[in-house]
């Protein structure tokens, strides 16, 4: 039985990022990584779980039966979780498209492996996919995504480590396609996802979630970017029932909406952009847009 309240309570104490790893003396220039993802909790529009089915279970997370440490302290108890699915499906189909669904790397059961260079730019990892088809209730209302990252220093070859796990709270609105849309769409109303990542530093300039971590005496910054994730409009945030300034993405009705997730490591600790700097950036962009408009008249 999924325990959403337990997961959300854990999320409140969790951060985003990676903890200090084993001590060493040489800076890491290349990393191997393994990411395991799956949904540990979810609710439907009636407050239960009966309206949602899971598939493509992640092998590592489904086999866990103890406590996994969370960033920021504490841990999440897997002893009552059971299978951890990388794909959730819901709704009574109202068209030939079938059920709606949300998946994170379901093609590989929520596991992604690869390598990257420090300061070498971002690499593609899993895809978030929302099959947004017309359905009758019950629909998805909320979910909690559990995400584990194992980092393995390759150059130089040093011991790898599991980062404390990340928890992503997802709030979802299956919009009524009656034309009165919070987010306009050609066919005709976008569904809305809000993502709450406690403790993450969101950089509005490059749309990344950031967290500094240490390996030995050196500091690094882990950066995650999800295509389409940005600050949503106040109307979209309010429709989902969260405060203004929320982060998330919207999806077009009748389509399979794909959002690529990218991962990057740099040797520059993350610093929150100063409001004044953001203000100057906004003013510069506005001036550029005004000049382009004027020259185009």
Give a description of the structure.
This protein is mainly β and about 300 residues long. The protein has one domain (about 5-295). About 15% of the residues lie in helices and about 45% in strands. Strands 1, 8, 11, 12, 13, 14, 18 and 19 form an 8-stranded antiparallel β-sheet that branches. An 8-stranded antiparallel β-sheet has the order 2-5-7-9-20-17-16-15. A two-stranded antiparallel ribbon has the order 3-4. Strand 16 and strand 17 (about 220-225) form a beta hairpin. InterPro entries: Ice-binding_C.
> How many beta-strand elements?
20
Outline: globular
- Cα-based radius of gyration, to the nearest Å: 20 Å
**How far apart are the termini?**
62 Å
Query: Which residues form runs of ≥5 with pLDDT under 50?
Result: 1-18, 276-297
Sheet with most strands:
8 strands, antiparallel
Q: Helix-strand pattern, N to C?
A: HEEHEEEEEEEEEEEEEEEEHEEH
């Amino acid at each position: 039985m999924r325990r959403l309240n337990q997961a959300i309570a854990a999320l409140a104490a969790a951060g985003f990022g990676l903890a200090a790893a084993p001590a060493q003396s040489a800076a890491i220039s290349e990393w191997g990584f393994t990411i395991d993802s799956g949904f540990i909790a979810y609710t439907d529009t009636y407050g239960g779980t009966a309206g949602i089915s899971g598939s493509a279970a992640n092998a590592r997370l489904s086999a866990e039966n103890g406590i996994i440490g969370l960033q920021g302290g504490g841990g999440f108890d897997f002893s009552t979780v059971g299978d951890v699915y990388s794909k959730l499906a819901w709704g009574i189909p109202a068209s030939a498209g079938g059920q709606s669904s949300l998946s994170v790397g379901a093609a590989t059961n929520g596991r992604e492996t690869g390598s990257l260079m420090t300061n070498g730019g971002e690499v593609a990892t899993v895809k978030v996919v929302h099959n947004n088809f017309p359905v009758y209730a019950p629909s998805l209302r909320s979910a909690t995504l559990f995400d584990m990252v194992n980092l393995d220093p390759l150059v130089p070859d040093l011991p790898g480590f599991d980062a404390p796990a990340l928890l992503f709270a997802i709030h979802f609105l299956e919009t009524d396609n009656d034309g009165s849309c919070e987010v306009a769409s050609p066919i005709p109303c976008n569904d809305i996802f809000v993502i709450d990542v406690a403790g993450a530093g969101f950089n509005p300039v490059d749309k990344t979630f950031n967290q500094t971590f240490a390996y030995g005496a050196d500091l690094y910054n882990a950066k995650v970017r999800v295509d389409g994730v940005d600050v949503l409009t106040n109307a979209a945030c309010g429709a989902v029932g969260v405060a203004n300034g929320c982060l998330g993405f919207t999806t077009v009705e009748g389509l399979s909406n794909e959002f690529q997730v990218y991962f990057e490591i740099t040797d520059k600790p993350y610093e929150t952009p100063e409001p004044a700097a953001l203000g100057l950036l906004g003013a510069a962009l506005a001036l550029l847009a005004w000049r382009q408009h004027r020259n185009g008249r």
